[in-house]
Write a structure and sequence with these properties.
The structure holds two protein chains of two kinds. By secondary structure, chain A is α+β, with helices and mostly antiparallel strands. Chain A contains five helices and six strands; from the N terminus they run βββαβββαααα. Chain A folds into two domains: 9-85, Ubiquitin-like (UB roll); 95-161, [2Fe-2S]-binding domain (DNA polymerase, domain 1), CATH 1.10.150. In chain A, strands 3-2-6-4-5 form a five-stranded mixed sheet, with helices on both faces. The chains are: A alpha+beta, B alpha+beta.
Chain lengths: 166, 270
C-alpha cells in the first residue's frame, strides 16, 4: 500500500505529449492544475472545475477524460496527450484542426482544446461515426460562442477526410 | 475550487483497501472513477480525511458471468460495460440506459459501482439495477455480504453501506427480457435526469416499469398490460412522494411521468 500524507508533496512522473516529465504535487492537486501550473501545459483550459464544461479534457492513456476530475497523483505513470500534440512539429494542423479552421468551429477558442481531444479519442476508436454520435460526444462540452454547428460540421469533415493522424 | 487536504491511499488489494477504510474511519472515501466524488471534493460538498483509490485494482477490474448474472467489479468503467459484447442481447435494459449516464468523457472514467454507491435518485445505473432485481456485494473486515439493490439504496445519496464497508461488485441478472426501452428528460443532453423511465417486458402481459428522479430512490413496479395503462400510471404518480428541487416541481415531475411512461411502455412492447 502506498500512502501520501495530507500536505506532503510527492513526485509525479508521467509522459506529456511524448516527453517524460516529473513534477511535485500534493495529494489534493487536480491533474488540470498539475498540467498547467507545474508542467506549464497551458493548452489545458479550466472552466468550471467540477466536471461540467469539458474545457479541461485531455487523453489519459489514450482515453478522453476531464482533468479537473482526476487527481495529479492518480496520473502517476500515465501518458497524457493535450491539444498541442495534434499539430506537427512545424506547426502544420492535422485534419481535425484544419477542419475546425475551415468551418469556423471556434471563436474565442476557450473550449477548443478540450473538444479537439474528445473528438481525437472518438475518431481513433470509431473512425466513421455518424453525425448523431458526434453530437453526442460534443454534448460533453460547453461552447459559449459557436452554437456548435460549426464544430459538428468540422468533425464530420474530418471524418470524411480520414481520421486525424495519431 | 480545490479540494481540502486529504491523505491519499493507493491499496494494492481489496484486503488493503478494506484495512485502510477501517483505519481512517468514517470520513474516508473510496475513489474509483471520481466523476462524482472529485466534483464534490472540488465544491467542498464532501469532506474526506482520506481518499482510498481503488481505480487500479486489477482484482476489481473484471466483468464475468456468474450463474445467471453479470458481475461487474468496482473498478469497471461505464464505457467498458457499454462495450460488453453481449450487452444488447443479454442486458438490453443497460444497453439503452447506459448511453444516458453522464457524457462520453465521464463514462470513460466513471465506474458502474461508483454510480451505485453514489445513490443519486435520478441516476440510471441504480435504477436499472433495481429494475433487474440486481445485487450489490460489499466487503468489510467482517467479510463480504450481498444486498438486494432495493435494500442497498435507502434514500437520496444514502445507502445501507456501513462506514467500514466498500462495494466490490454489482450483479446484474441476465436475460430478463429480449428488449427494453429507456428515456429521460433533462435540461441538456447528459445532465442529471429530471425524470428517467425504463421498461422491459417481463412476460406476455406484464411490463416492469422503473422511474428515477421522481422519488428519493428508484421506483419499480409492474404494469399489467390487460388493464388500462393510463389508470395504473395515474395511481403510480401519486405514490412517488413529490420530489422537489431547483429543476422541477413535484407537479412537473408527475406530469412528465404521465406523458413519458406510456411512450416507454409502448417502446418496450415493440
Ligand atoms: S474545468 Fe473540467 S470540466 Fe470544466
Ligand atoms: S469558441 Fe468560445 S467557448 Fe467555444
Amino acid at each position: 500500500m502506498s500512502e501520501i500524507e495530507k500536505g506532503a508533496r510527492v513526485p509525479v512522473q508521467l509522459v506529456l505529449n511524448g516527453t517524460a516529465h516529473t513534477g511535485f504535487a500534493e495529494s489534493r492537486m487536480l491533474l488540470s492544475d498539475f498540467l498547467r501550473e507545474v508542467l506549464g501545459a497551458t493548452d489545458v483550459h479550466v472552466g468550471c472545475e467540477h466536471g461540467v464544461c469539458g474545457c479541461c479534457t485531455v487523453l489519459i492513456d489514450g482515453v478522453a477524460a476531464r482533468s479537473c476530475l482526476t487527481l495529479a497523483v492518480q496520473a502517476e505513470a500515465t501518458t497524457i496527450e493535450t491539444a498541442s500534440s495534434l499539430a506537427s512539429a512545424d506547426g502544420e494542423l492535422n485534419h481535425l484542426q484544419a477542419a475546425f479552421r475551415k468551418h469556423h468551429a471556434l471563436q474565442c477558442g476557450f473550449c477548443t482544446p478540450g473538444i479537439l481531444m474528445s473528438l481525437t479519442d472518438l475518431l481513433r476508436r470509431e473512425p466513421e461515426p455518424t453525425r448523431e454520435r458526434v453530437v453526442d460526444v460534443v454534448s460533453g462540452h460547453l461552447c459559449r460562442c459557436t452554437g456548435y454547428s460549426g464544430i459538428i460540421d468540422a468533425a464530420m469533415d474530418a471524418v470524411n477526410a480520414g481520421s486525424p493522424k495519431t | 475550487m480545490k479540494p481540502r487536504p486529504f491523505t491519499y491511499v493507493r491499496p494494492h488489494s481489496v484486503a488493503e483497501a478494506v484495512a485502510a477504510l477501517s483505519r481512517h474511519g468514517e470520513s474516508a472515501r473510496i475513489l474509483a472513477g471520481g466523476q462524482s466524488l472529485v466534483a464534490m471534493l472540488n465544491l467542498r460538498l464532501v469532506e474526506a480525511s482520506a481518499i482510498i483509490d481503488i481505480s487500479r485494482l486489477t482484482e476489481l477490474s473484471n466483468m464475468r458471468v456468474v450463474g445467471n448474472a453479470l458481475e461487474v467489479g468496482a473498478a469497471v468503467t461505464q464505457n467498458r460495460l457499454l462495450t460488453w459484447p453481449d450487452l444488447a442481447k443479454r442486458l438490453p435494459l443497460l444497453a439503452v440506459a447506459l448511453p444516458n449516464v453522464g457524457h462520453f468523457q465521464t463514462r470513460n472514467r466513471g465506474t458502474v459501482c461508483g454510480s451505485i454507491a453514489h445513490a443519486d435518485p435520478s441516476s440510471e445505473i441504480p435504477l436499472s439495477l433495481a429494475m433487474l432485481g440486481g445485487e450489490v456485494v460489499l466487503a468489510s473486515p467482517r467479510g463480504t455480504r450481498t444486498l438486494k439493490a432495493q435494500e442497498f439504496q435507502t434514500g437520496v445519496l444514502s445507502t445501507s453501506r456501513a462506514p467500514d464497508e466498500m462495494i466490490i461488485a454489482g450483479r446484474f441478472p441476465l436475460d430478463k427480457s429480449r428488449t427494453a426501452a429507456f428515456r429521460e428528460v433533462s435540461r441538456r443532453q447528459g445532465d442529471f435526469a429530471i425524470v428517467a423511465i425504463g421498461a422491459y417486458l417481463k412476460d406476455a402481459d406484464t411490463i416492469c416499469l422503473g422511474i428515477g428522479g421522481a422519488a428519493d430512490r428508484p421506483f419499480v413496479t409492474d404494469i399489467a398490460l390487460g388493464k388500462p395503462v393510463t389508470d395504473q400510471i395515474e395511481d403510480i404518480v401519486w405514490q412517488l412522494g413529490g420530489h422537489e428541487d431547483i429543476h422541477a416541481t413535484p407537479h412537473m415531475r408527475r406530469d412528465l411521468v404521465r406523458r413519458l411512461a406510456p411512450i416507454v411502455i409502448e417502446e418496450a412492447r415493440a
